[in-house]
């Protein structure tokens, strides 16, 4: 009987460890399920914890981004579109997002929102064009 319980416990631990690793480590179950269903997980905005949302979309397939993250650092990844980033904003923090189309055709649109209210958006339909938006948080 003890061996059966040990084997069952070992199987459970193996299953549990298989679920917790990889690129989804630290992601809540709700966010993981939303991502698997093609939905974008959302933070819940409040007065105490304002939510900043950066969105880049358009007909372009890929864009080179420059944006200021939650810590205020500039990041410059190249991403597939559409792309969304959410983080908790800080009072008077500088918000910045730009996207450069990586091709001769297509449009890119950038959008900055705080607590679901548009701060600014920008659009470019030029070849290798850049769309820019900026503002101040909260």
Element pattern in H and E:
HHEEEEEEEEE
Mean pLDDT: 80
Pairing-aware structural class of the strands and helices?
alpha+beta
Runs with pLDDT <50, length 5+? 4-30
Main sheet makeup: 5 strands, antiparallel
Number of DSSP strand runs: 9
Individual helix count: 2
CATH architecture of the largest domain: Sandwich
| Assembly state | single chain
Strand content: 35-45%
CATH class of the largest domain: Mainly Beta
Overall geometry comes to elongated
Number of domains: 2
Radius of gyration computed on alpha carbons: 20 Å
Going by CATH, the homologous superfamily of the largest domain would be MmpS1-5, C-terminal soluble domain
**Helicity range:** 10-25%
Which fold does the CATH topology of the largest domain refer to? Immunoglobulin-like
Walkthrough of the structure:
By secondary structure, the chain is α+β, with helices and mostly antiparallel strands. The chain has two domains: 2-36, no CATH class; 51-136, MmpS1-5, C-terminal soluble domain (Immunoglobulin-like, Sandwich). Helix content is 20%, strand content 40%. It contains two helices and nine strands; from the N terminus they run H-H-E-E-E-E-E-E-E-E-E. The protein has helices at residues 2-20, 29-36; strands spanning 51-57, 62-68, 74-75, 78-80, 83-88, 94-101, 108-114, 117-124, 130-136. The strands form two sheets. Strands 2, 3, 4, 6 and 9 form a five-stranded antiparallel β-sheet that branches. The longest helix is centred in the first third of the chain and has 19 residues, at 2-20. The relative contact order is 0.18. Residues 4-30 have low confidence and may be disordered.
């Amino acid at each position: 009987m003890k061996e059966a319980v040990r084997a069952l416990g070992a199987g459970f631990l193996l299953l549990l460890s298989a679920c917790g690793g990889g690129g989804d480590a630290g992601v809540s179950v709700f966010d993981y399920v939303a991502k698997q269903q093609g939905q974008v997980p959302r933070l819940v905005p409040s007065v105490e914890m304002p939510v900043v949302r950066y969105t880049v979309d358009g007909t372009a397939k890929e864009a080179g981004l420059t944006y200021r993250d939650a810590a205020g650092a500039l990041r410059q990844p190249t991403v597939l579109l559409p792309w969304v980033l959410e983080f908790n904003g800080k009072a008077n923090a500088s918000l910045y997002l730009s996207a450069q189309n990586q091709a001769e055709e297509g449009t890119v649109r950038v959008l900055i929102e705080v607590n679901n209210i548009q701060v600014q958006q920008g659009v470019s339909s030029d070849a290798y064009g850049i769309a820019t938006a900026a503002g101040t948080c909260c």
